[in-house]
Design a protein that fits this description.
The chain is of the alpha/beta class and 261 residues long. It is built from eight helices and seven strands. Strands 3-2-1-4-5-6-7 form a seven-stranded parallel β-sheet, with helices on both faces. The termini are far apart.
Length: 261
């Protein structure tokens, strides 16, 4: 029998790369998507993953036409994926009072939200026709409450959580599972410049192990690690006055134009 196929966007580093390695070790074939295809190739070579077990697709998830073409190529070359993981994302601080930062925020939303819809969209009808498949959206605990200086990213991940919930309802009787994963702080390039405390910081490899288990179990929503889920729920329950006081003076996420970035 042909091994199952998983498609992962943002596969050139961090969470995407760790999940790709975990699935490869489970015997899955890989469809790996990123703008930096050479970075993926170097990583695959370093881990001795056999060429017949993967295909690299170079695309920008924010470009819906590219994602539609990618989906057609993937289905033609490798078949319809069993699991599609929309992981590609960017995290940059924004300051709404700075006009140039509105373009930065638009790029965050285009990549993190529209890019997810563009990733899922071309596979939905074929999966419905087959009667099976799993769509995985990578959200974040940052989507549960807004953090100072992090408006673009928090807004995008709040949208991801709601979008996946809507999609789950739409596909409830189709045989397709929609899984929302919300990482806490993971030691990846997205967090390496953070100038604030990151409780329960987790390695990408440990996240991948827990994430793949949650996907296999068909969990509709999972915060990883679970401790951050508890923290997020408590923060959600805090009155705004207490929440604002708690985060007053917290260092902001570095902006793209900040000298330290």
């Amino acid at each position: 029998m042909t091994p199952p196929l998983v498609l992962i966007t943002g596969a050139s580093s961090g969470i995407g790369q760790a999940m790709a390695l975990h699935y490869a070790r489970l015997g899955y074939r890989l469809a790996l998507v990123a703008r930096r295809s050479q970075a993926i190739q170097s990583w695959l070579d370093a881990h001795a993953i056999r060429p017949e077990n993967y295909v690299i697709y170079c695309a920008d998830v924010a470009q819906s036409s590219q994602m539609a073409s990618l989906a057609q190529a993937c289905i033609a070359q490798q078949g319809l994926p069993d699991v599609v993981i929309a992981n590609a994302g960017i995290s940059i601080g924004v300051d709404t009072s700075v006009p140039d930062d509105l373009a930065v925020m638009a790029n965050i939303l285009a990549t993190n939200v529209i890019g997810m819809a563009a990733t899922f969209g071309p596979f939905i009808a074929p999966m419905v026709a087959r009667g099976s498949g799993t769509l995985v959206g990578i959200g974040s605990v940052a989507g549960i409450r807004g953090l100072p200086g992090h408006g673009g990213y928090c807004a995008s991940k709040a949208a991801v959580i709601s979008y996946c919930e809507s999609l789950r309802g739409e596909l409830r009787t189709s045989g397709i599972k929609v899984v929302t994963l919300c990482p806490g702080y993971i030691a990846t390039p997205l967090t390496q410049n953070n100038q604030y405390t990151m409780p329960f910081l987790m390695s990408p490899e440990m996240f991948a192990n827990k994430a793949v288990r949650a996907i296999a179990a068909g969990s509709s929503y999972r915060v990883i690690p679970w401790q951050m889920g508890v923290v997020a729920k408590l923060l959600r329950l805090l009155p705004n006055t207490l929440f604002d006081r708690l985060f007053a003076g917290r260092p902001r996420k570095p902006r793209v134009t900040d000298p330290s970035d």
